[in-house]
Amino acid sequence: MKHEPFNESVEMYLKTVSELAVHEGLAPISALAHQLGVSAVSATEMVHRLGEQGLVDHVPYRGVTLTEAGAQRAYRVVRCHRLWECFLAGPLGLAWEHVHDQACQLEHATSEEVADALDAFLGRPAVCPHGNPIPDRSGAWREPDDAPLSEWLPGERGTLSRIYPESTLLLDYLAARGIKPGCAAHFVEIAPFNGPLMVCIDGETHALGHEIAAHIYGIRT
Amino acid sequence: MKHEPFNESVEMYLKTVSELAVHEGLAPISALAHQLGVSAVSATEMVHRLGEQGLVDHVPYRGVTLTEAGAQRAYRVVRCHRLWECFLAGPLGLAWEHVHDQACQLEHATSEEVADALDAFLGRPAVCPHGNPIPDRSGAWREPDDAPLSEWLPGERGTLSRIYPESTLLLDYLAARGIKPGCAAHFVEIAPFNGPLMVCIDGETHALGHEIAAHIYGIRT
DNA sequence: CCAGGGTTTTAGGCAAGCCTTAAACCTCGC
DNA sequence: GCGAGGTTTAAGGCTTGCCTAAAACCCTGG
Fold it and tell me: What DSSP letter does each residue of A128-191 carry, written as one string?
């Protein structure tokens, strides 16, 4: 009945650090603040609190990384998030592009017990509806062998594998165009003057900005 | 990604008022405070805030009732709570006496969309695993035709219908003794000197205190 | 090597929810 | 009708998480 004040914010910070740190290795506080929609001052404050709790390491002027404990905590949240996405998009039949937001709410209200039961109920899915791998109960997962379209070379072909990191705006945009994991992709060319990437996806050619292309991963064949 | 200020506390207050007001019609602030584990001063403060928002009416020195808006809000939470209980105890296979706590977390993180989809997925159940009716999306439900054991007369027989209000301690206690909705009940006698109620449930005789008996409902045959 | 821009600290604030202590107040039963 | 006990107000405080503004600081590119 009583409810702990721990959760929500702390978990969102850790989750966000884990997302930002994937590429850079170090998540700048400014990026963290921007992603979470708070001021840099607030983010700095919070990072200090998390540091004191041993959840993150902060290298001044460089950025933030997760400690072992922080990573564990972050992956537990990510696991819940993706399991809920599977449930919402699967048995519950919600739209692919809507489940992310709902899962964002549920992820912080999920005990280990429920996560495990949900995992078993869903048949231990390997990936969420957006193609991202689901950590197991120990926090481990298999890193997919894919690359963002932004790293593909013109002419390459393959299959879309995942959208990462997920965001409502992006998912809506992609859903409206029928772009999702499993689609066949052919990177035709990059438009001149650093223009958008022209990518043929399931027979339809799309002009994708560099930002977006960095969020769409695929496996080259 | 952005997430709204917690409606958590507000919803817990409204839910609790709805539970306490069932019998009395008016929920005393002291009972509210006790149930929520906060001080009477804090509860009074909060009731004022809820009053300003038009969610409750406060009759000084008497108690609190829900306004139409407050009731609507409370029933939506109750609906989510009981739907989650059905899901957790059914498809997920969690223990009858454990699902209440988990549902308490999830209920505040559930959109109408998810509640509706969950309702459909579960086959529009009429009651939760503890026997309590599940409001429909408009907040209405069929009030069961039962009475707490504390209102039964010695000698009466019937079938247990529900546990209400639910609480972890009570559910654990009852689960350990195999007492749950659906059990056949025979109110043998009330022990002398205002003693416990002797009730034969599924062939086993239990001595139930008056407090507990007020929380166990049954339909007399 | 130096300035511009990102990063951090300092300082002062706000709102929600909770706390305690103490005084004022009402209600009800004897 | 009076007092005990429940209810409310008042006063002062705490924590979390957020804000702005302004100053101090560091890193890097030109």
Answer: -TTSPBPP-TTS--PPPS-EEGGGS-TT-EEEEEEE-S--HHHHHHHHHTT--TT-EEEEEEE-
Omega of the bond prior to A196 within 30 degrees of 0, cis? no
Residues of A in contact with B110 (CB under 8 A): 105-106
Pairing relationship of beta strands B56-59 and A204-208 according to DSSP bridges: unpaired
The answer to whether B29 CB is within 7 Å of strand C is no
How many C-beta atoms lie closer than 10 Å to residue A48's C-beta?
12
* A38 strand D contact, CB < 7 Å: yes
B1-15: b (≥16 Cβ within 10 Å) or e: eeeeeeeeebbbbbb
pLDDT value for B158: 97
Is strand D less than 7 A from the beta carbon of A48?
no
pLDDT in tens, B17-60: 999 887 777 899 999 999 999 999 999 999 999 999 999 999 99
* Of the candidates B178, B181, B167, the residue with the CA atom closest to the CA atom of residue B211: B167
Which protein residue's Cα is closest to nucleotide D21 at C1'? Answer: A41
Q: Positive or negative, the Cα torsion across A155, A159, A164, A169?
A: positive
Nearest nt by C1' to B59 Cα: D7
Nearest C-alpha neighbor of A98 from the set A176, A205, A181: A176
Dump pLDDT digits (tens) for B95-125. Answer: 999 999 999 999 999 999 999 999 999 999 9
B113–A94 C-beta distance less than 8 A:
yes
- Which tens digit of pLDDT belongs to each residue from B133-168? 999 999 999 999 999 999 999 999 999 999 999 999
**Could you write out the DSSP letters of every residue in B76-130?**
HHHHHHHHHHHHHHTTT---TTTHHHHHHHHGGG--HHHHHHHHHHTT--SB-TT
Q: Give residue A17's identity as a one-letter amino acid code.
A: V
Q: What is the C-alpha separation between A55 and A107, in angstroms, rounded?
A: 19
Confidence band for B193, pLDDT divided at 50, 70 and 90: confident
d(CA B213, CA A123): 41
Is the CB of residue A47 inside 7 Å of nucleic acid strand D?
Answer: no
- Pairs of CB atoms within 8 A across A/B: 70
Please give the average pLDDT of every successive group of 10 residues along chain A, which has 221 residues.
Answer: 60 94 82 92 93 91 92 96 98 96 95 97 98 95 94 96 94 97 96 90 95 94 88
Hey, what are B121's tokens? 């997925």
Residue B163 contacts residue B174 (beta carbons within 8 Å) = yes
What is each CA distance from A79 to A46, A65, A135, in whole angstroms? 23, 19, 5
CA pair distance A119, A34, nearest whole angstrom: 32
